[in-house]
Amino acid sequence: MAFTFGYKDQQIDSTADPITTLILTPADCTLIVLTVAVTGTVSRAGGSPTLVDIDGTTQSMLPGLGEASAEGEVEIWYAVNDNCPNSLGVSIDLPNTGTINITTSSSSYSCAAGNWAYFHERIDANGVSTAPSVTVTPPAGQYVIVDSMFSGYGQDSGTNNRTKLYSNDTGNEINAHQYHIGSSTATIAMSYTTAASDDWCITALCFAEYTDGDLKRWNGILNQNITVMDSKKWNTISKVNTKKTGN
To answer: How far, CA to CA in Å, does 65 sit from each of 62, 78, 92?
Structure first.
């Protein structure tokens, strides 16, 4: 009972509008993540990326937001559960109305049969050093963490501490993306190493895997005097479960 990696794709140093990437998805896909690295001090413009299924159905991805440094910035966007088209050809259109230089990486994942994915937390960091890093506190149970990193240093030493999705050395800066699947509640560092110190920024998103047992526990809590925060989480899980079961 754990997340399983599906597929990945990347578009390097594109100035197109939109930037389109094709991501394959497993038949039981429950998570699609788009990581974005922007080169320069001008932010990307144009709004949310759009998932386009093979039948032409479109929907906006959810924002994981991002982080910036002196020379670039990163973003992460995602779709979960029934918002993930389960077909072999799903494209993602990322608006880029300012036609600035952007690298994207997309990846897909699936939960164990009958389970679903839930956004747990986002952690951002920036600094000036040879070690871009962010520390994530995962939930109890199964999870997957995906990050997006930008560094102003123009030589990629090729070192990262988790499973690399892609890295891109433009000669002037580095952008890279990696993921980690686990089940330990110990803090998880998502880090890189560059050959020399420079400005960097990194954003990591953590997604948890929920089961029917989790839903029953939330239902028990809902019948008590729960907090507003718990109520919001319940509403999200309840909507997801309704989609999956058809209730």
So the answer is: 9, 10, 17
Band the pLDDT of 247: cuts 50, 70, 90.
very low
DSSP calls for 135-202: EE-PPSS-EEEEEEEEES-S-EEEEESSEEEEEEE-SS-EEEEEEEEE---S-EEEEEEESS-EEEEE
- CB neighbour class for 142 (10 Å; exposed up to 12, middle 13-18, buried from 19): buried
What would the pLDDT profile of 131-160 be if each residue is shown by its tens digit? 999 999 999 889 999 999 999 886 655 688
> What is the biggest distance separating any 2 CA atoms in the chain, rounded to whole angstroms?
58
For residue 4, what pLDDT is reported? 94
Predicted local distance difference test score (pLDDT) of residue 217: 53
Predicted pLDDT at 237: 45
Q: What is the CA radius of gyration of the chain?
A: 18
